[in-house]
Design goal:
By secondary structure, the protein is of the alpha/beta class. The chain has twelve helices and 16 strands.
Length: about 350
């Protein structure tokens, strides 16, 4: 009997050990992919991949338009267990810099779920409409999320809940969402990911300015809605609206209180200044005035790097030292953050 009991205890210990190893096989990593004056973020989890936005840039840099698919191909080569499947794509809002490569992703990989705000207009609405139809006719599911949904205490998205049910150390909360604003930036779905004890917030292009139909910007709405709570607090902040001056606010940064901030924006050197008008040089992103606020509100540091920001449209702010833990795809290329340790790795 003693031998059997000891054997049982030993066997249970072995099983627990195997489970612990299996759980830690693929710790979460957050990939901020360099898609130029656009946005796309890959959430790599133990048993699932989630993509937030699928934008791209069209400039004189030929690699910029194809980098997202190239990056995802390389990612899935390193994660064959995921079988080239993206569990869920979340489109924060229907602007072309967030949807340009959406159908390329749909055609290249298996996509099980699509979440968006259900809008019918916007510069990037056609790829989004095509993706809704595609996922629904290829065995997947599409979900609409409005701001009214997210303010309901019982609101849970089924696709994201299914991930949590498989991975207990992963949890998603959707904030914001479509609110009928004329400016689709103020309709951005805001995503909060909790992994173990680390929190990440992804804010789309939420703005601090009102528009014709929404009398306060989404940032102010969320600050008011979640005042006195820790709902907005995050260790890592994906900066709103590519570092635009209307995409940040000292109170907003204070509510988030990030250790690390990440901007997704395009480069401003000559190869990225044309053709056309849709690039960081034309928009003036990331704006120096906004970067100062983000810098002041970010608590950790990084190895000092000399970077460029923009003082305004077509006005470069050169030789700018950055010592706080503020990163930008325009300075650092692809950025990967370890979900547990918050260690940052950059392409350059």
């Amino acid at each position: 009997m003693k031998f059997s009991k000891a054997l049982l205890i030993s066997s249970l210990g072995f099983v627990l050990c195997i489970c612990a190893v299996a759980k830690a096989a693929h710790p979460a990593r957050i990939h901020y992919i360099d898609v130029g004056q656009a946005e796309s973020i890959l959430l790599e989890l133990d048993q699932a991949a989630v993509l937030i936005d699928a934008g791209g840039e069209q400039t004189n840099d030929p690699q910029q338009g194809t980098h997202l698919i190239s990056y995802l191909n390389t990612f899935f080569q390193g994660r064959p267990d995921l079988q080239r499947t993206i569990d869920t794509i979340i489109i924060s809002h229907p602007h072309i810099d967030h949807t340009m490569a959406l159908m390329d992703v749909m055609n290249a990989f298996t996509v099980k779920n699509l979440i968006d705000g259900g809008q019918s207009a916007g510069s990037g609405i056609e790829p989004l409409k095509a993706a809704r139809k595609f996922v629904n006719t290829h065995g997947g599911h599409s979900f609409t999320v409005t701001r009214a949904n997210t303010t309901q205490p019982a609101f849970v998205n089924p696709a994201l809940k299914a991930i949590h049910d498989r991975e207990s150390d992963v949890d998603f909360k959707l904030l914001g969402g479509a609110n009928g604003c004329k400016n689709a930036n103020n309709d951005s779905i805001v995503v909060v990911l909790t992994y173990q004890t680390s929190r990440f917030i992804f804010t789309g292009d939420a703005e601090d300015e009102p528009d014709a139909t929404c009398h306060s910007g989404e940032i102010q709405d969320l600050l008011q809605l979640y005042a006195g709570t820790n709902t907005l607090r995050a260790d890592v902040y994906k900066v709103d609206h590519h570092g635009s001056p209307n995409g940040t606010d000292a109170n907003w940064i204070g509510a988030i209180s990030p250790k690390i901030s990440v901007i997704s924006a395009g480069k401003n050197d000559p190869p990225h200044q044309g053709p056309g008008q849709f690039h960081a040089f034309q928009f003036g992103h990331p704006r120096e005035s906004a970067v100062k606020i983000i810098e002041q509100g970010t608590s950790q540091t990084r190895p000092t790097k000399i970077v460029t920001t923009m003082d305004g449209v077509k006005h470069i702010h050169a030789n700018r030292p950055m010592a706080k833990a503020v990163y930008c795809t325009c300075w650092d290329g692809d950025i990967v953050i370890d979900g547990a340790t918050l260690q940052v790795t950059t392409a350059h």
